[in-house]
Specification:
With 678 residues, the chain is of the alpha+beta class. The protein folds into five domains: 5-261, P-loop containing nucleotide triphosphate hydrolases (Rossmann fold, 3-Layer(aba) Sandwich), CATH 3.40.50.300; 264-366, Translation factors (Elongation Factor Tu (Ef-tu), domain 3, Beta Barrel), CATH 2.40.30; 385-442, Elongation Factor G (Translational Gtpase), domain 3 (Alpha-Beta Plaits), CATH 3.30.70; 459-572, Ribosomal Protein S5, domain 2 (2-Layer Sandwich), CATH 3.30.230; 577-657, Alpha-Beta Plaits. The radius of gyration is 32 Å and the shape is elongated.
Length: 678
């Protein structure tokens, strides 16, 4: 059936875990007669949790899109993960809808993650609504929860539906727009006051008459939500079907359509200024990729949101990032795991295309010669890294390709080959995040991996001056090898790097062999002698040596130079340097003492504290070695309400006792490696 942008409602259910998002999806689908029974998370029968990992853990781990049939309206509704480790899909969904619906559990209404998602919806420019679930439990007060929500999010938060009673006595939902129940007048007046702030004309009328007439009230609800002047609150009990009909009626009549937001910002390729205004119904097709999924059996599916114009099957489009042209052979309507072919899409539609390998998450796709680029959403930076390797020898070549595919689906999953250690590092949000990743590796790509902590990139340096000497002599019959080198080493200031000086006089080392001594010295720098880490901030000065007219060659002086540096190095009181990170921790105030104490016990140095959005920001400098599993520790200390970021600051000397322990462990690892490969 043909439809216009004004007939579309796009919304995403977001919220903390166990806030009722998945149950609400099932309740709406049951109400719309898409299913014959209510699914439950406990028995794995929900519409959303279709992946094996989701059914096993009884929680949503990916965003799932559903088309809910409403009279004359196309209602596209996302179920998104509630766990902060999988917030990428929630953020991606918020980026392509008009309305964010924050689900709140009345038993635990305002978690840190819920506040984060609220802010993310604000960054995406969404209209916002709130659904309160679990109101039929004992000792719950809808009035009290609304008071908390208004204190946290402002006076725009107003109920449009509310329960008839508290706790287990909750049996009916009253609707303010129908003037139902004892609180209807109070809430109606609160909504009117918020609506009046939309523009000066409406405010002037409201102030002069003290109210809005019924037509004004209804006509401006959608504008008020789109502009953030009204945040409607809904009381819903999904398991009992209470409040579902009222919620869907309000969605149909008053949730913003794509045309309510007017122009969206975009940029010209290569520019960071989003000054190009994109009107839904003005101009050629333009869309954004919000998700890609690769399945070895189904193939690659790319999910998009059309922001402007329309697209028909078999048209060509341009991926602005790559400049490549692709023919859209299959346009797909999406409902959970089900897809069906459609002939066209219009501005506001959420749809999928199949078998196009080049599209990546966040790409802008157009049909015009002069393309535009939509802004990419902001995702949290991953902080938990593991070194991985395949369990089966034959999987070495497969592992990189398989991880590439998973990382293309998850912006919070990073991977790289460490140039220094050669380790293949995968970085995610937590042990759980990577555990799910490894399970998907096994299920989708038949690759099993082992993993361990990454090697800390220590450095070595010296703290004193010393003399070094080596005589390289090798005679095996015929021409031999001979070189002798005398040199000095000295420490340099932090960050000064390596310096080589030629102080040889009198031709004791021929000029053609002087560069070979430097090559040998530089080769030593790559692996050091204390624990096998690179050496930094050292000066080497060659000042004397001997040679043989026949047996001396380039290789001999390289070997002599390297071993002479080794001789001097071990006399120059070498030390280990460790990477120090600038760490920023964000926690609720009540956890400040515990977190600060924990950082201090992990050799962290506090550098400042400040308050931001009712959260405590703790700044510190900590050794990287102490931060490898900090995400797990912070989550334990703060009941999952803390987050942190870190970036490299500088190198510092390792404490002497700890250095002895690190060196001993390093030698043990090297010895084991040599034994295994003997």
């Amino acid at each position: 059936m043909a439809h216009g942008s004004e007939d579309i409602r796009n919304a995403a259910l977001v919220g903390h875990g166990h806030s009722g998002k998945t149950a609400l999806i099932d309740a709406i689908a049951h109400h719309c007669r898409l299913t014959t029974r209510l699914g439950t998370t406990a028995d794995g029968s929900t519409l959303s949790n279709t992946e094996p990992e989701e059914r096993e853990r009884k929680q949503t781990l990916s965003a799932h899109l559903f088309r809910m049939p409403l009279d004359g309206v196309r209602f596209n509704l996302f179920d998104t993960p509630g766990h902060p480790d999988f917030a990428a899909d929630a953020i991606a969904a918020l980026d392509v809808v008009e309305t964010a619906v924050l689900c709140i559990n009345a038993q635990n209404p305002l978690t840190f993650h819920a506040r984060q998602l609220w802010q993310a919806a604000g960054h995406c420019g969404n209209g916002r609504a709130i659904v309160v679930t679990h109101l039929d439990h004992d000792k719950t007060s809808f009035e009290q929860i609304v008071t908390q929500l208004r204190a946290a999010f402002g006076h725009a938060v107003v109920p449009v539906t509310y329960p008839n009673a508290a706790g287990a006595a909750f049996t009916t939902v009253h609707m303010v727009t129908h003037n139902e129940g004892p609180e209807a007048t109070k809430y109606h007046d609160m909504i009117e006051e918020d609506e009046a702030e939309i523009d000066d004309t409406l405010m002037e009328h409201y102030l002069s008459t003290g109210h809005l007439d019924p037509n004004e009230f209804d006509d401006n609800l959608r504008r008020a939500i789109a502009r953030g002047k009204l945040v409607p609150v809904f009381a819903i009990c999904p398991q009992r079907g209470l409040g579902i009909a009222q919620f869907l009626e309000f969605v149909q009549l008053h949730f913003p359509s794509p045309t309510c937001f007017g122009a969206r910002g975009a940029a010209k390729p290569g520019s960071d200024v989003f000054s190009e205004m994109v009107q839904p119904d003005d101009g050629p097709f333009a869309a954004k990729v919000w998700k890609t999924v690769s399945d070895p059996y189904v193939g690659r599916l790319t999910f998009l949101r059309c922001f402007r114009g329309s697209l028909k099957k078999d048209q060509n489009v341009i991926d602005v990032r790559t400049g490549r042209v692709a023919k859209i052979a299959h346009l797909l309507d999406v409902h959970g795991k089900q897809t069906k072919e459609i002939g066209s899409v219009t501005a506001g539609d959420l749809f999928a295309v199949s078998k196009i390998e080049d599209f990546a998450q966040g790409d802008s796709v157009t049909t015009e010669i002069v393309p535009i680029v939509f802004p990419r959403p902001r995702y949290p930076e991953p902080t938990y890294s593991r070194h991985i390797w395949p369990k089966a020898r034959g999987d070495e070549q497969k592992i990189g390709h398989a991880i590439d595919k998973l990382a293309a689906e998850d912006p919070m999953l990073h991977h790289q080959r460490d140039k220094e250690t050669g380790e293949f590092l995968v970085t995610g949000m937590s042990p759980l995040h990577l555990e799910i990743t490894f399970q998907r590796l096994h299920r989708r790509h038949q690759v099993d991996v082992a993993h361990g902590p990454p090697t800390i990139p220590y450095r070595e340096t010296i703290t004193a001056r010393a003399e070094g000497h080596h005589r390289h002599k090798k005679q095996t019959g015929g021409r031999g090898q001979f070189a002798e080198v005398y040199l000095r080493v000295a420490p340099r200031t932090h960050g000064a790097g390596f310096e080589y000086r030629d102080a040889v006089v009198g031709g004791s080392i021929p000029r053609q062999f002087i560069p070979e001594v430097e090559k040998g010295a530089r080769r030593f720098l790559t692996k050091g002698s204390l624990a096998g880490f690179p050496v930094v901030d050292m000066q080497v000065e060659a000042h004397d040596g001997k040679y043989h007219d026949v047996d001396s060659d380039q290789l001999s002086f390289q070997i002599a130079g390297e071993r002479a540096v080794h001789d001097a190095y071990m006399k120059a009181r070498p030390i280990l340097l460790e990477p120090i990170m600038d760490v920023v921790v964000q926690v609720p105030h009540r956890f400040t003492g515990d977190v600060a104490g924990n950082l201090s016990s992990h050799r962290g140095r506090m550098s400042g504290m400040e308050v931001e959005h009712d959260m405590q920001i703790i700044k510190a400098q900590c050794p990287l070695a102490m931060m490898l599993d900090y995400s797990t520790q912070l989550r334990s200390m703060t009941a999952g309400e803390g987050s942190f970021t870190m970036k490299f600051a500088h190198y510092e000397a390792v404490p002497p006792l700890l250095q002895i322990e690190i060196v001993q462990k390093r030698k043990t690892v090297v010895d084991q490696h040599l034994t295994e490969h003997a």
